[in-house]
Structure formats: C-alpha cells, structure tokens
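Hi P.,

Sorry for the delay on this. The queue was packed all week, but I finally got your sequence through. Input first:
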Amino acid sequence: MEERICVGAIAGAFGVRGEVRLKSFCAVAEDIAAYGALTTEDGARRFTVTLTRPVAGGLGARLSGVGTREEAEGLRGTTLWADRARLPSLPDDEFYHADLIGLPVFDPGGAPLGTVRAIYDHGAGDILEVAGPKGQLLLPFTRQAVPTVDLAARRIVADPPESDE
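Then the structure:
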C-alpha cells in the first residue's frame, strides 16, 4: 500500500493575494486541511493548508509559501498528497482508491479478468475500470458485482454482470 494518498488538487488561483482554488478528493471536502502538511506528488514541495471559504468548484485556501497570484496560478494542476498515517482508518467495507488501483481481479472460478486501472465516481456509485486480456471491463463497485476485496492477499474477486454479446 502507498505511504501517501492523493487528497486533492490545485485548480488555479483565486483572488490576487496568492489564494488557490482547491479541489478536495476527501469524503468531507474540508477534511483536506486536517491531515497536516500536504506534499506535491514528487515530494519536492510541502504546504500547510488553511481553508478560507467555499468557492465555485471547490474551496478557497492559502498554502504556506504561496503569496502571489502568479505563484498560485503556477501550481494549477498540482496534486496534493497526505501521509497515509494521518488519514482515518476505514470500516471493513470501504477502501482508499489508491489501495485498489493495480490489484489483480479474478472471476469466482479463479480466472484472471485483469487489473484495476482506475476508479470512477459519476455520482451513482463507484465504477472499477479493469484492463485485461479481453480489453477494458467496467464493473459497478457493488457487493453483487465485486463480492471480495482482499487487501491482505492483494486480490479482488468480481462477478461481472452478463453481457448481451
């Protein structure tokens, strides 16, 4: 499992004094400021986050070391990462997306279906994208379609819905 989890991204500058528009990937958006200093993906920069106000499409925030609009705009697209140890433990039936990406997926009989490439949430529930020998497979992340997620064994068992092909 990764030692860091991506918890948000900088969507651009907000205002003229170095404030940023922050997109939070947390279940409760404001929790992004509760995980201590956040780093860039490469670990080269570290920011303390202070939320200022809700803004269209995210949260207004001040990042330590960012004082001008130009500096804030230069960070557009930067992902922010938190140390895994600072994140809350999850119940048995919930998972961090980072823990699922890259796991092999098997059907109930043990035949390989592929590997989790991405997880999407379009509002009606998560969808697993599985890349396998037969191409891309999109699975609803429900107990019916994905009855077993075994992080300790690093594997997922899925029972894909029947296709009409």
